[in-house]
From TrEMBL:
InterPro entries noted in UniProt: Cell_Wall_Dynamics_Protein, Glyco_hydro_19_cat, Lysozyme-like_dom_sf
Name the UniProt record assigns to this protein: Glycoside hydrolase family protein
Keyword terms: Hydrolase
Limits of the Glycoside hydrolase family 19 catalytic domain: 115-190
Length: 211
């Protein structure tokens, strides 16, 4: 996959394509994402997860009504925690509260008071989330992500490698071989959030990579 093809597949600016081509190519080689069909599905999913290869750390800058996607945040707290009138961005302290309520006491995270929800929020191209997943990814990549989770947001190669690891470990290569993009989406996001956007990216990727 050359620069021009990657740029078209992922709908990237020249600068972003140049930034990401090498990390994406290396991770694809490492995790056997080694056919046009596999690349198309992977790039589409990672493009969606990362907001077009731009966001490597999860934001909790939500309007109150948008917080309903987190079942653990009571309706009575949405107005308090979400963006207030006149705010462009939810202050960091409230974003931390949202993350800790949403992700606390799940998949290896400590309770809401532990701060693990914020500590192990989504990072990397896949937005790896929860302590258990950071631990497993770190073991697979030979990196200590439990004690230094920020590496997934600060190192483009690790951001891509963690995405490749997650993809392969969930059987997405085989799903892509079957052209079962919905199975890939379920593996990445069981709730199928953003399905239409993912599907649109997949179509673009297929046009660029499969002709």
């Amino acid at each position: 996959m050359n620069m021009e093809t990657f740029q078209r597949a992922a709908s990237l600016s020249p600068a972003l394509a140049q930034r990401w081509l090498s990390p994406i190519t290396a991770a694809a080689d490492e995790f056997h994402i080694n056919s046009p069909a596999r690349l198309a599905a992977w790039i589409a999913q990672m493009g969606h997860e990362s907001g077009g290869f731009r966001l490597l750390s999860e934001s909790f800058n939500y309007a109150p009504e948008a917080l309903r996607i987190f079942s653990r945040i009571p309706a009575s707290m949405r107005a308090e925690l979400g963006r207030h009138p006149g705010e462009k961005v939810v202050p960091l302290a409230r974003q931390e509260q949202i993350a800790n309520l949403a992700y606390g006491a799940r998949y290896g995270n400590g309770d809401t008071a532990s701060g693990d929800g914020w500590r192990y929020r989504g990072r990397g191209l896949k937005q790896i989330t929860f302590k258990d997943n950071y631990r497993d990814a770190g073991r697979a990549l030979s990196v200590d992500l439990v004690n230094d989770p920020e590496q997934l947001a600060n190192d483009d190669r690790l951001a891509a490698r963690s995405a490749g690891w997650y993809w392969k470990s969930r059987g997405c290569n085989e799903a892509a071989d079957r052209s079962d993009f919905d199975a890939c989406t379920r593996a990445i996001n069981p709730a199928m959030d953003g399905k239409s956007g993912r599907d649109a990216r997949y179509k673009t990727c297929c046009n660029a990579l499969l002709g």
